[in-house]
Each structure stands twice: as C-alpha cells, then as structure tokens.
Amino acid sequence: MTRLFATACWMVLCVPGLLPGAEPVRASRRLLPVPDLQPDPQIPTLKRVVGHDWGQNITSHAEMERYLKALVRAAPDRAVLVPYGKTYEGRTLYYLILAKPEHLQRREEIRTANLQLADPRSLPPEKARQVAAGMPTLVWLAYAVHGNETSCTEAALLTAYHLLADRRPETQKLLDNTIVLIDPLQNPDGHERFVNVYRETRGVFPDAEPLATEHTERWPSGRYNHYLFDMNRDWFLQSQRESQARVAAYLHWQPHTYVDAHEMGHNATYFFSPKADPVNPWFLPQQIETLDLLGRQLAQRFDDQGFVYTTREMFNAFYPGYGSTWPNFQGGLAHLWEQAGVRGLVIRRSDEQTLRLSDAVRHHYTSSLVAVEFAAAHARRLVDEFYEARRRGTQLGHDGPVRHYFLPPGRSPQRTTNLAELLRNNGVEVRRVAKTMKADTFEIRTGEKGRRQIPAGSFHIPLAQPASRLVRVLLDRQVDLEPEFVQRQLQRQADRFPDEIYDVTAWSLPLAFGVECWSSSAPLEVPGKPWDGVRPAGQVVGERAKIAYLVPGHDGALPALCSWLRKGLRVHVADRDFRMGDDAYPRGTLILRTAENPETLHDAMQQAARDDGLRIQACDTGLVSAGAQLGGPNVVWVRPPKIAMLMDRPTSYAAGHTWYLFDQVWRYPVTRIAASNLSRLNLQDYNVLVLPDGDYGGREGPGESDVSRLRQWISQGGTLILIKRAASWATQKPASLLSVQRKNKPAGTPTDGKPTGEPSADSASPPADPAPGAFLTAHVFREHWLTFGCAAALDVFYRGNVILTPPDVSKGRGLVTFASPSQILTSGFCWPETVELVAETPYLIHEPLGSGHVVAFTDDPNFRAMYPATQRLFLNAVLFGPGH
Predict the structure, then answer these.
(1) Is there a contact between 529 and 431 (Cβ–Cβ < 8 Å)?
(2) What is the pTM for the complete model shown?
(3) How big, in percent rounded to 5, are the helix, strand and coil portions of the chain?
C-alpha cells in the first residue's frame, strides 16, 4: 500500500502544472506532443516502449535504443536505424533516417548524387542543376554531444515520433522535400554517467532546489565522454572515437543543414543562431544570410508559442571545432540551439520561476520541427547554396592568394604524416609529390618567402578543391579576429568587465604539430597523385645485430619504446649525439643491446619497423666514430616507468586528456588514483607521479604530511610532474616543492585596470588575465634529456595565467622559455599585459631534488590531445625521468 501511494505521488507530481510552486501556464504549452497532432496508433509512443511519457523522465541509452528500434519496426518503409560507431565503453552510436518511402528506397542513389554535387570539379553548373532538380534536402539533427544535456535526446525521440506518427497532410508533406537524419545522443558514455547519478540520488518527489543531490553531479560530470573530452571542441581534431565516427558519417552524407542542440545554465532561456561576434571570416555571406532567415522563422514560432529566447548575444562562431561551425566550412549550414538545462525533472531559477524538463523538451521539439519545415520550404535553395559553397571553395584555389600548401617530411616525418592523415579525415584531398620540384613558397610560421626545393614524398594540399576554406582555417598561422571585436575586448578589460571570448583564439595545425608548412600562390603543376593514406614502410637495415639496434629518437619511436618496455626489453638512450661510421645519431637515440635482451629481439625490431614505420639500424660494433660511446656515461638505461596520476577532485577534467594519451596513443599503463587517496598511496610502488592541472591549494589538495612524503620520495629517485595550477601550488607553502614563485600583476594594480609598479611575486597580488588560447614562441634548451626530439624554437599553446619566475641556476633550469615581448605572440590573441608578464618566463622547469626530479609545466602540454610538439616534452619526462 505504501509503495502504491509513493508511486501515485510520483505520477501526480510529474503531471504538468501540478508540481509544487508551479506558476500558472496555459495547459497547451505543457502538452507533448503538440495537441493538434493526429497520431497513427501503429507508431508507438515512448511510454508504450520504455514506460515513461515525453518529458516525464530521463531516458537512458538502452531505453533510447529500444525506442528507436521500435519506431523502425513500426514504420520500416519510412525509417532506417544506422549504427555508425561505438563509444569507448562499448555503447552504439546511431542515426535514424526518416524519409518518405520512395526516398528511403532510393536513399543510396540520393546520397551518391549529393556527393556529386559536393565535388563541382567533376560537375559543371548545367549538370549540377539537373542533378539537384527534385533532390530532397538533407537535414541532420544532432543532439546531446554533452551527455548531461538531457532535454536534447528527449526532444530528438519526440521529433522522430512526430514525423512518423502525425497523419496531418502538413506533416506528411515535410518529407516530400527532405530526408531527415537524427542523431539523438552523440555522447552515450557521458549521458549514462549523468543518468546513473541522477537515478541514484532522486527521491520520490522531484526537487526544484538547484543544490539538491539530483541536480549535483559528481566529478567530472556527464558533459564529457569516457576520456573526459568536450567533444564539441573535437570536430577537426577528431581525437576521440565518437568524433571520428561522427565526422565519417557526416562526410558519408554531406548534409545541407546541420543542427547542433545543446543545453546551458538553468537561469538562461533559449538561444538560437545567429551567433555572437566574432564570426570566423571564412563563413560565406550566403551562409550568414540563410542562418539569419532560419533564425527569424524560429523567432516567429517562439513568439507564437510565448517562449522566451535570445539570439546574437553569446556563443560565437569563431573556433572551427564546434558542431555549429565545422559543417559551414564543408559547405553545409550549421545552426546552434541552447536550451536552459534542468538536469533533472524540475529546477527553481533565480527569477523564482520553475523550469521543468517538459518545458525544455518542448522548446527543442518546437525548434526541430521548425528546422525541418524550413528545410522543406527552402529545399532547392539549400541544395543550390551547398553546391555553390563547394564550387566557390574550388574556385578559391584558382583566384585566391594561396593556391597550394606543402608539408615536407622535415625533421618530424611521423608528425607530418599524422597531420596529413588528419586532413584526409576532415574530408580534405591530400596528394603526394611524385618527384622533387622547386617553387616560390611562403613559410606559414615565420612568414619567410623564398624559392624552396620541395622533396619527393612531400604532402601536397591543392586549394582547388571543395574543402579549401577548411584548409585555410586549419593550416594558416592566423585567423584574424575582427578589429572591432578586439578593441571592444580591450575596453572591457580596462573597464574590468569579463571578456566575450568564448573559446581559444588560435589552433593552427602546423604550429600544433610543430611541422613545416609552405604555401604558394603560383599556378603550379605539381606531379603526383592523391594520397591513399598508406604510410611508408619501415625497415631494419642490416642483418641480425651482433651488438645493438639503434633507433633515432623521433616521435615515432616513443610508442615503440612504450611497447618494448611493456614487454620487458631493456632499452638505453643516448644523452649526446654520436656518429657510427657515416651515419649521425641525435640525442635521444634509443639503443637495444643484444646481450641484454632475449633472442626474440630481432623479431621485435622487425615488428616495430612494420607497425611504427621506423628505420632501425642493426649494429655490429660498439665503436663509435664520434660523440657518446655506446658503453659510456652518456648512454643511460631507460628505467621502466611505473606511473601514478591523480584524478577526481581537485583535478581538472583535462586530466582525462593525459589518460587518453597513455591509453590510446602511447599504449602504456598508468594507475589513476583519486586525489583523496594520495595519503594512502604507497609511493614506493611508483617512480613517476603526475599531478594534472587542478586547485590543489584547497581542502581537497595534498596536506603537509603528503608533501613531506612526496619530498622524501622525490629525493629517493621519484619524478614528480606538475601541470599548470599544480605547478603554481608547488611554489607556495606548505608545498614549496619548487624554488620559483608565481608572477602576478604589478603590485598595487588599481581597480581601473591601469597597472603601476613592477610585476609582483606576492600571492596577494591579482594574477594575470588568462591568455585566451594563443600560440607563444619559446626557446628550447636542447642539452637536456627533457628536450629530446625538440627544435631550437617551439610554438607553445598557452591558455591560462600560471606564470612562474625563472629558477635560480643553482636550483634548476628553465628548459623551454618564452620569447621577448616583441617576438612572443605567434598566433591568436592575448592581452597585452599578459604578454608582458609571460615574456621571458619558463614554460618548462626542471629542478633536481636528491636523486629525483621535479618537472613543472606552466600550461597543460596534453590539452585536448592537440599538440604533439608539447606532448613530446611530457612523454620525455615520463619515459626518461626515472633513469636519469
């Protein structure tokens, strides 16, 4: 009886309009679906399949899966469910195709025809008009790339039901001119993390208190995927499995319209495009115009319904890695929606209004219908504009100031190949230069012009291709912010208002990868053919080695090194350059002695050459002609690292980015320890400890006893790696693990923002304004094992305000140091005051302590897994710290 009463209470409280504190609202605004829908009883409702009604509970991934399959079973002539990938936790990613029967049967023919439109090089305008005539426009509706934005998935399922079940002629006609593809849940792993916490913490009565446990997520929240990546920043990076699958599915169809549905804070209302300034300059005017037209149609519908909304005031369109920007560079039309989030069933806003899940679902559901209606009404316009955008992209390679890009192998051929592969995965045509040629070129990083020899095997990216705008966005050193926007930010800073910069201001892939990139404006005939993605094979040069195998220590050797260490092979590393006969070997060269390894060593070398494309030299003598001797003091055993890394509070979610690199790129085990368990960890079981970025100065950070244990462990040979705010914490008491100090704004800085005096190392002084994601030039001290594989100059991606003073030479060394104020800013925007403060300060610090090392980074080298150039520094610390 008690259970029945509790269930009845739950059902009553979930009825729209009956929750405690509900404000008077027209009943029709609470009904889902729309009250005038004429449902086909053969199409199941959500409640019939999973047990709860629209907007009355949060649907899990498994329940969503059941419902999608039920829809397809009920309407197999109009719906197809396509699995397009798997998450790291094994959940399936789906998109649902909705179309009228004739279109569904011809979907492959329609898709193929659309891909013809996507490449105007082989489809002149007259032929394109014939192909486009009568073609349905392709509408892609994508929801919940952030897993805790729950109204998105609920609205996706309701939209699919509406399009299949409504028998009214106006709804049936929507599919005459459209094919609708719905991705209802882009981040299943994060979504399940949220759903599990919500279901564990909810009570019988939905609680509107924002601090109630059902609204309070545990670290790191459901926003992120398994490895804690924000996948709405991952479209062109494609570091994550889900992003790779999503982009491949997108390119498989090349939709004309793409909608990215999100949630924001519960005190907001509803946002839809057009976005705020700045807009990426590579957007086409026609795209901005059509986005504005769709926004006006949404506004009209929201006005009719009495929904409150905003537009143009936030969420800029500058960074190319969002779901609402990247498709525009492919020629599509990407639109953003943001609904105030409930993170449960009901929440109280600061304006004393009550927001329900059903409200949020209704808003996204309404927007979804408007998007399909707009596409149906403007089908020919959207198809024509898509073709025109792709045609103009191709023309850019003939008329624009840049016609070609070249990626020469350079000193990091693996990185260069990885960059070329990433471009291919972004739908960019990449070619290989068949024979050495000369051309007048412009070096992307330095701006240096000159006639260069382009080696055979270099990657060639011609601009005369449909995705040329994306190529410019990704390969140019700089994408300029609008001058008016920059001036407004500087004035806001002076007036002590928060800035309007939403994400990073720089992302140039050649800078991120640390490779050369040359552009040319000449109308060149480049010998070669499209690259098929096949990497050059490695080889073991010579017969079975009598003495050792030598492996130059470039980036490609480090995953192989990780594999060898896992298998128990003994590896040494050269701290100095050396020569063996006519061959030169740089610092960081790996040496595997045959006498110290099993007879299977040769097979392991052959496998590494195949798997990692390595050129390995078999060596029959230990006598070198110059430099480090193979048996001398400058060749050091690579002691296998035993790594622990802190996770959970107080670390940042970006700790997951390092975890991902260990798991998926370097393939080396790392023990992840909750920071609250540091005092219980037996440090002697490990020789490397990573403290990711986090707020270690609070109650959840290490205490004095932890610091004492850390100090003793380091002095006995441990390697402590500190990242960003962890490095700042280490400069302060009670830690004092670094001798340097944090550099803040000048002492006595007044509130009007005009600094006075000299920069201060006083912790009471205000910190610098954080750099909003820019590349800063740094100089590298190359005579240290931490900088193996690095050039003399490095472009460091810097996003923060941890600025440390240079160490005293008697206590340590700044190994990577930012350039002078006039030379430091390579790409992006940074506050002038911050530039002055960070100039000539260290990015990477090494301080010995007893037999061990303290290694500190002032920013995260592994952020978004985007920067191979700085990841190399981190991996050097991990792999070579224990042996030095």
Answers:
(1) yes
(2) 0.94
(3) 35, 20, 45
